[in-house]
Design goal:
By secondary structure, this protein is an alpha/beta fold. It is built from 14 helices and 16 strands. The strands form 3 sheets. The protein has an 8-stranded parallel barrel with strand order 3-4-5-7-8-9-10-11, surrounded by 4 helices.
Length: 469
């Protein structure tokens, strides 16, 4: 989520942010200038396939088709509207459109929704969602395990941090072990901003400090023995946001200044650096990029990637929102119905499409970024009731859906046809990801991977049912 502003200064502070972003846009160089060449360098590799028959002899002159089936890069979106449309055909259309674009799903594990009463969980629905993802070759992330906001605090949990901690440990361990198919988790969500809140989880974080909270949560996570990677996810990614927080919460800010070590670092970057210095860094950095208040200049996005890449950790853009309507300086984050009407407009949809294509192109071209997650897929029940979807509430695709489809599934997609040489080898350059090698006139299908973590000229040996035609 994005920053919540004290209503007394709510008009002035977002305006300062808008003006800052506008000034940055005016004077910065174009970061898209060399994007295509960077994409070719960082997202593609040459592969040599050595094709042999079942006797181990080179399959010379074999005609093959290599078809890409999934990107290595994680193009994602939350899947929160799974099964929530009133008619079956709409649920099916939602999933068809969703899977036509994405390979990475964020599933909702908000504590009040998942466990509204002690021991009464929504496990069956989440398992259904996870099963659909596995059947459709979609990688899964769970979001979130621990969160200080009201949406992360069911009413039944105790306020005493000493009583709460065992319940959080139990939750982390049960979810990670109970959903082994989930490959990523947001462990602690928005850890640098809990000082502003007084929920039960916030009180726990504030009592021990965010670094110690991360250390304890990490121990619970590691004790499960699971192989899933975990992220620390936040929106406090620009220094200006820290200034905004201080202005909005002066009393709490004084407490922070008087005891910064126990409480909070000034920025998400400083917090992550502290985790790394103490050898408890996450597997990846989660950066939220909600743009309901203002569009981020692309130069600012690039500089953000450059800054956080210095930490030496993969970067995930975990929650990306680009509106197809007007941006608003004043937003009610707790009563979204007050934001209505907030319509999608024809002009807004065109702007959304143009910016989304540029934003994805820029991030795909940065070597440190390995995931982008859009937030939300449909305008129906979108967060804050904002026109944030790639499809409208009636599931009609917006122009942005088509733009991203042409990039992700066409321009950045590889299908190859050719024949093996006398050595039984064939060579081509393709986007990194999973592939299926098909042999015409044969039912045999062989799968292989082009890995961007490996150098050029990576070799793959496959055994075919015949040596040639």
């Amino acid at each position: 989520m994005v920053l919540r502003i004290n209503p007394k200064i709510g008009k002035a502070v977002p305006l300062c942010l808008v003006l800052l972003l506008a000034s940055l846009k005016a004077c910065a160089p174009d970061p898209l200038k060399d994007a295509d060449s960077r994409i070719k360098k960082y997202r593609m590799r040459e592969v040599v396939i050595s094709l042999k028959d079942r006797e181990g002899k080179p399959a010379a002159g074999a005609r093959v088709e290599a078809k890409m089936i999934r990107h290595q890069f994680l193009f994602g979106c939350n899947l929160f509207m799974f099964g929530k449309f009133s008619r079956r055909e709409k649920n099916e259309r939602y999933l068809k459109l969703w899977s036509g674009l994405f390979n990475y799903a964020t599933l909702p594990f908000y504590w009040p929704g998942y466990e509204p009463r002690p021991g009464m969980t929504d496990r069956e629905r989440l398992k259904e969602m996870a099963d659909w993802c596995r059947w459709n070759n979609v990688i899964i992330k769970g979001h979130p395990l621990i969160w200080h906001e009201p949406w992360g605090n069911p009413k039944w949990i105790p306020g005493d941090p000493k009583l709460l901690e065992p319940l959080m440990e139990k939750r982390v361990k049960e979810l990670v072990t109970g959903f082994p198919e989930i490959q990523y988790w947001d462990l602690i969500n928005e850890p640098t901003t809990a000082w502003r809140d007084s929920t039960s989880v916030a009180e726990w974080e504030n009592r021990i400090g965010p670094v110690e909270a991360e250390r304890r949560a990490r121990v619970w996570y590691k004790q499960t023995g699971g192989q899933a990677r975990y992220l620390v996810n936040d929106y406090n990614v620009f220094k200006i946001i820290g200034v905004v927080f201080f202005l909005a919460h002066p009393v709490k800010a004084i407490r922070l200044l008087l005891n910064p070590i126990k409480y909070y670092n000034f920025s998400f970057y400083a917090y992550l650096k502290e985790l790394k210095d103490q050898a408890i860094a996450p597997d990846a950095i989660g950066i939220q990029s909600h743009m309901q208040i203002a569009i981020w200049p692309l130069s600012r996005v690039w500089n953000l990637c450059e800054t956080y890449s210095r930490l030496g950790l993969p970067i995930h853009f975990t929650e990306t929102t680009v509106l197809s309507g007007k941006t608003h300086r004043k937003i009610d984050y707790f009563h979204s119905e007050k934001n209505r009407p907030w319509p999608s407009t024809e002009k807004g949809e065109q702007k959304q499409a143009e910016y989304a294509a540029e934003f994805y192109t820029l991030l795909f071209s940065h070597p440190a970024v390995e995931a982008i997650t859009w937030w939300d897929f449909s305008d129906k029940d979108a967060w804050l009731d904002a026109p944030a979807g790639l499809v409208r509430a009636n599931l009609a695709p917006k122009p942005a859906y088509g733009k991203l489809h042409r990039l992700i599934r066409e321009k950045w997609w590889t299908n190859y046809e050719g024949r093996s040489d006398q050595k039984g080898e064939l060579k081509f350059r393709g986007f990194c990801g999973d592939y299926r090698l098909e042999l015409p006139h044969s039912d045999q299908q062989l799968e292989f991977q082009i890995d961007c973590h490996q150098p050029e000229g990576q070799r793959v040996e496959l055994v075919a049912a015949f040596g040639g035609e």
